[in-house]
Structures are given as C-alpha cells and as structure tokens.
C-alpha cells in the first residue's frame, strides 16, 4: 500500500483495517506526511484508542510534527478525552509548546474544549498549566476572552487564573475580548477585576481598540458598561463602571426570573375571569362538583403562589473549592 493511500485512510478515520498491516510491518509506524504528521497524530485526533495504544509501542509519546505539535495537542483540540488520558499516562508533556507557543491548555481553549481543559486540570499541576503563554505572551485567559468562551473563563477563574495579566502588547483580556468582538463576556471580565482603564502599547483602552477595529457589538457593550471617570487631568483615559448599567443588568436578571411565574399568573387570571363571566352558571348546572373544586381551588393556589413568590427560600451554601461538582466530575470520570 502506498504511503499517500495510508494517510488518506488515516485522515478518513479508517484505523481498524490498517492496524493489522501496521503490526505486520512496523516500519509503517514511522511514516510521516509532508507536514511531519505521524500515524499517532491522526489516531489522537480521531480518538482511536486501540490504534493509539499500538502506536505508543513504536513511537515517542511526544513525537512532533513540523509545527512542533504533539499527539496530545491534537487530542485536546477535538476533546478526545480517552486518548488524551492514555497519552498523559504514557508521560506526554502537558506543558510543552508548539511553534507559536501554544500549550495543550491554550489549544483546548481555542477550540472550545472545556472537557479537555478539565482533564488537564485533573491530571496536571495547576500553576504550571496556567503559566503557559504563547509567543505573543497571550495566556489561556487572553484566548478565552478573544474567543468569547465563557465556560472556559469560568473554569479558569475556578482554578485561580490571573485575570489581571497582560500580554506582550500590554493587552488585557478585556482588550482581547474587544478585539474578538465578544460582547457576551465583558461583564464577567469586569466582575473578575480586569482593569478597564489599562492601555496597550499603542496607548489604547479596550473601548478604543473596539472603535479602531470597528467591533460594533463589543463597542456598544463596553459603552453601556463603562464611562469616563471625571478627572482634572486633560486627556485622562480612566474608565469606571456605570452604576446605571449595573442596575439595568440586575433588572434584566430579575425580569428573566419572573418571566415564567408572570406568564403562569396571567394565564390563571384570564381563565378565572372567563369562568366568572361566562362559564360559572353552566358549570354549576352541568358539573357542580368540578365547579366547586375550581372555585375553591383557584384562590388556594393563588394564595400559595403569592406566598412562595414573596418568601425567601434561602440559598444552598456555595461549595468550597476542592469539594465541589468539579472534583466530583474528576472522581466520577476516574481521572483522579
């Protein structure tokens, strides 16, 4: 079988028919494509555990392609957790970098693979994972902000990532979110203490970045959340959060919580009105028991509804780090 045909089948996820051929001729394991990709890279990308297991008997676990990417990097980009765990058990380096400085964690963030992020945090030292930055100095937090990955940002926050970090361009995660036109995460970044007044190497705030790059969604969101802080200094770029914006956010959240109860209350009110105006007489005549049950039941239900609506049910205590659902997931999946 020609080399080109072998890699065509590997790219097409055809592994099981190829495995006996590779076992008969071990030299096939060492084949490389033009870009330096190996059979192990393709098996990791596809998540084929038997082929990966066999490949590890012949190839280094951290064998690199021309762009310095390892099989572990390929596995996390697709969220292939079984293969990623297998590679790490075979001592794959979770802190290594490719040709542009991306680590497995950064690649998982870039591709929206929060499950792969969890696996890395379960099996690796957290500070070392979070310390990785690419050639531009961008951390996993920068990339999560640029991509608008709220779930990734929440995980990074859980594992104590530094949200105040700046990259080589002196850009904060808020700058990168503006650059990526990611309006949905601005509030989260500000809540995590990202300084909105920071300027990059070009002396631009996050608002000015959005303006220069014509990122309209991000610009509109930032202007709703931030305002210039009064200052005697001419040309001051200090920004602060708008109080009105915070109040509006709280009002929107309350409105969302009230939407379904309000709809239910309206439906019951309309049904009761229709009953009293048009159906009460015929109902008492034809179905007296049902009519009585309805007339007695509706007020009781309405009173119970109002009591529940106005009563504070309390809050479930927030679980501490180290004994939360995140750790339960680690244990449940058998990662730790």
From TrEMBL:
Q: Which Gene3D superfamilies match?
A: Ankyrin repeat-containing domain
Q: Which residues cross the membrane?
A: 283-308
Task: Spell out the SUPFAM superfamilies in the cross-references.
Answer: Ankyrin repeat (SSF48403)
By its UniProt entry, which SMART domains does this protein fall under?
Answer: ANK
Family annotation (InterPro entries): Ankyrin_rpt, Ankyrin_rpt-contain_sf
Mark the ANK repeats by their residue spans. 67-99, 136-168, 169-201
Q: Which keywords fit this entry according to its UniProt record?
A: ANK repeat, Membrane, Repeat, Transmembrane, Transmembrane helix
Question: Mind telling me what this protein is named?
Answer: Palmitoyltransferase
